[in-house]
Amino acid sequence: METEIILMRDVDGLGKQGDIKKVSPGYARNYLFPNNLAAPATPKHIKMLELENKRRDAEAKRAVDKLREEGERLSHASCTIISRAGEDEMLFGSVTSQDIADSLAQTGFTIDKRQITLEEPIKKLGVYHVEVKLHADVSASVKVWVVAK
Q1: pLDDT tens digits for 83-111?
Q2: Is 86 helix (H, G, I), strand (E, B) or coil?
Q3: Max CA separation in the chain (angstroms)
Q4: CA distance from start to end of the chain
Q5: Superfamily of chain region 3-65
Q6: Do 3-65 and 69-148 show the same overall fold?
Q7: Can you tell me whether residue 90 is helix, strand or coil?
Q8: CB burial class (10 A; 0-12, 13-18, 19+) of residue 143?
Q9: Which listed site, 44, 103, 126, 146, has its alpha carbon 20 to 30 Å from 1?
């Protein structure tokens, strides 16, 4: 005989928070319930789970909407990176995603270098459009000017 439970937290090998699972009564009674990892799947707990999921979905939607606004502002932004270059417009070094993140930070945007997508480091003077991924669904294109010192 198995007991039906609702997971209150992620449990390795069993499931994610909010999943309804069937487990042995001893496992539920001796491990999951005392460690607040699960609750019995009663109508009351199922209703609480549904309310929590609605709240979490609304919160995630607000966060994505805020990131979309940030992406819109970022799309209109540009940054200038000054670097030493030779006569053939080749840089003595290269412009990396960290350089772009630092330049954007000076204009008021807090972007992590891992959010900036560069196929390869920039090694020539010019204007480049660089993609910044703010979220799985939200990205923006930033204009990067690379000019000689």
Answers
A1: 999 989 999 999 999 999 999 999 889 99
A2: coil
A3: 80
A4: 76
A5: Ribosomal protein L9, N-terminal domain (3.40.5.10)
A6: no
A7: strand
A8: middle
A9: 44
Contact 58, 37 (CB under 8 A): no
CATH number of 69-148: 3.10.430.100
| Single pTM value for the model | 0.69
Each residue's pLDDT tens digit, 29-83:
999 999 999 999 999 988 988 898 899 999 999 999 999 999 999 999 999 999 9
Instruction: Give every strand in the sheet of 38-40, ordered side by side.
Output: 20-23, 3-7, 38-40
Phi-psi region of 58 (alpha: psi -120 to 50; beta: other; left: phi over 0): alpha
Distance CA 12, CA 93 (A): 46
* pLDDT over 90 (residue 18): no
- What residue spans define the domains of the chain? 3-65, 69-148
Interior/surface letters 11-29, b for 16+ CB within 10 angstroms, e for the rest: beeebebeeebebeeeebe
CB 97 within 8 A of CB 113: yes
Q: Could you tell me the CA-to-CA distances from 46 to 17, 21, 40 in Å, in that order?
A: 13, 12, 9
